Amino acid sequence: MARRHPILKGLGIISVLVLVLFVTVFFYAYLTGGEGKTLSLLSGDGVGVLHIEGAIEDSYPIVTELKRFKESPWIKAIVIRIDSPGGAVAPTQEIFEEDQKIKNGKPVICSMGSMATSGGYYIASACDQILANPGTLTGSIGVIMQLGNIEELMKKVGVRSYSVKSGANKDIGSPFQPLTPEGRAILQSLVDNVHNQFVGAVAEGRSMEEAVVRKLADGRVYSGAQAKELGLIDELGSLQDAINLAAKRAGLEEDPAVYTSREEQGSWWERLFMFVIDGGTAGVRRGGPRYEWSPLWLR
């Protein structure tokens, strides 16, 4: 037994050294590239999957993740999984622009979930190819601005509102006064302008004639099957089908390694800290024109 002790001791030292080396490599990978780089040491090259879910109010988390995918050498292609009714105009356009930049270097495939309407479709149109399920709700190419008026209610409760403004149209859309014909015309012009931007973006992203897109852009919703017939999507298929297609376009084998990212990133304590700093208002809807389709019966 005495002779075995040096051997066992040597094996123990080697095991400890291997473990230390293993941990060091993984910590270095994590610090220099995050969780994705750490996982890539085990899984190798693969496809990055970014989920966009719910109303689109802020582009920063999504654009940040797209840039991280773009800069990660082990991610050879990107799938954007959209399950969204759309949302605010500017964030939607910023995500669209980032899609356009990325697909010049890596394949970008869109996979539609149960819904990818209005702003959700706007983003999808920037991708190289779009896949949807036959029953996916998509389309709704259009703009909406909804205003309320509580003037009569204010009168009943005996409350008056006064506006001190620098110009005649500074308080257009105020809920405390009726919308004048001039105000309606101004807002309609705004909506029409933003709608034209939507049509132009879809025509560019899908390589379609603008006149063809405009005929489809009356705000109506299409099923995935209808959208395929109209040329708004490319194929019917699932998320896995989109991943396999992305892998094929990137020269990877079928069923590649998948690196998944969602809008909400960071550790639990980082998310808690940011929630406290923001006052829990990150999900509050803002006013103005919207690329959105969300009838009450879907809520």
Strand content: 15-25%
Mean pLDDT: 82
Number of strands: 10
Query: Pairing-aware structural class of the strands and helices?
Result: alpha/beta
Coarse shape:
elongated
CATH architecture, please? Alpha-Beta Complex
For CATH, the homologous superfamily is named as 2-enoyl-CoA Hydratase, Chain A, domain 1
Please report the number of helical segments.
10
Largest sheet data: 8 strands, mixed
What is the rounded Rg?
25 Å
Describe the structure.
This protein is α/β, with parallel strands linked by helices and 299 residues long. It has one domain: 2-enoyl-CoA Hydratase, Chain A, domain 1 (Alpha-Beta Complex). It has helices at 4-43, 60-71, 89-102, 119-124, 151-156, 181-206, 210-216, 224-230, 239-250, 268-278, and strands spanning 46-53, 75-84, 86-88, 108-117, 129-132, 137-139, 221-223, 235-236, 257-262, 290-292. Helix 6 (181-206) crosses helix 7. The longest helix has 40 residues, at 4-43. The termini are far apart.
Task: Write a concise synopsis of the structure shown.
With 299 residues, the chain is an alpha/beta fold. It has helices at 4-43, 60-71, 89-102, 119-124, 151-156, 181-206, 210-216, 224-230, 239-250, 268-278; strands at 46-53, 75-84, 86-88, 108-117, 129-132, 137-139, 221-223, 235-236, 257-262, 290-292.
